[in-house]
Amino acid sequence: MPEICRFFGIVIAVFYDDHNPPHFHARYGGKKVSMEIDSLRVLEGNISPRALGLIMEWAAQHKDELLEDWELAKHNTQPKKIEPLQ
């Protein structure tokens, strides 16, 4: 699971050759969540509301990069790092 970004203790990653819909994974404080890239809806998991808000803000700013990384990982190619939330 390649890590593509880390900010405020939140780790964002994508899996190689993962299933549709395009999504990413986030970890924070022992909790995990997977989120659809296009809609930013939670597909699975549970995470604190504060962390979820930060993740959604970051993902909204980087949707195109996330989709590019999704395609790279889907084809077993190393995804690119994405700038953290400032």
What would you call the quaternary organization?
Answer: single chain
The major sheet is characterized as: 5 strands, antiparallel
- What is the helix/strand order? EEEEEHH
First-residue to last-residue Cα separation = 24 Å
Strand arrangement within the widest β-sheet reads: 1-2-3-4-5
DSSP summary, beta strand count: 5
Coarse structural class: alpha+beta
Residue share in helix:
25-40%
Give the overall shape: globular
Number of helices: 2
Strand content: 25-35%
C-alpha-based Rg, rounded: 11 Å
Mean pLDDT: 96
> What are the low-pLDDT stretches, counting only 5+ consecutive residues below 50?
none
Count of individual domains: 1
How is this structure best described in words?
The protein has 86 residues and is of the alpha+beta class. The chain has one domain (3-74). The chain has helices spanning 49-61, 63-74; strands at residues 3-7, 10-13, 23-28, 31-36, 42-45. It has a 5-stranded antiparallel β-sheet. 28% of the residues are buried.
Give me the secondary-structure topology.
Elements: E1 3-7, E2 10-13, E3 23-28, E4 31-36, E5 42-45, H1 49-61, H2 63-74
Antiparallel strand pairs: 1-2, 2-3, 3-4, 4-5
Features:
single chain; alpha+beta; 86 residues; 29% helix
Q: Would you summarize the structure shown here?
A:
The chain is α+β, with helices and mostly antiparallel strands. Helices cover 29% and strands 29% of the residues.
